[in-house]
Amino acid sequence: MSLRELLVPVSDNDPPPAVRKFLRDAERRIDRFQLACRVPAFVPCDYETAYKVLRALAESDELRGQRFCEWGCGFGVVAGLAEMVGFDACGIEIESALVDEGLQLAEDYDLSVELIHGSFVPPGAEDRVHRAGAYSWLATEGDQAYEELELEIDDMDVIFAYPWPDEEAVVFDLFDHYAGAGAVLATYHGSAEFRLKRKVRDGGKRKRRGR
User: Fold this and answer.
1) Within a 13 Å sphere around the CA of 151, how many CA atoms are in the beta-carbon half?
2) What is the pLDDT of residues 34-64, one digit of tens each?
3) Percent of the chain having pLDDT more than 70?
4) Buried b (16+ CB within 10 A) or exposed e, 101-131
């Protein structure tokens, strides 16, 4: 595996008022949604800590660019936070009802986040995913999300994911195989635990276009 741990100092300063308002509203909407609908695989992460991690990344000299993608974005809250700290953000989500909610949230806060319905597993990687094991919730079927985004994984500078425990290895493997050298993977693992990894060499078969 060509991934290396990335250490970025994360400030414990509180988010600014506009971000706190966004998070309070997002959490209220999520609570209402979960009372009305049941999407078992949707579990919100620690959004306030996610903001602090994204802010630290955006303010660091560790990034090769500003393109951000949230894998399994749910309401698109992390993607929205990413845009708030300066990223060009998008998200991919397999549950269409969550995409609809996320698009409304983004519109209400004048965020130009692009949220796409589909699987974040890239075309052609399905066999690779299934060879790695069985999963409770990971779906490989869906619209061609990257086609709609007009981007590929190796165009992304930062990818964020909140994998279920049985998905962690395959999420790391997909990033390792398809991301471009220098890209960063940020993952949440519960209890305010975030991990940052950088791809330090080309572990996949493809190269970034133009290189």
Assistant:
1) 21
2) 988 877 778 889 999 999 999 999 999 999 9
3) 88
4) bbbebbeebebebbbbbbbbbbeebeebbee
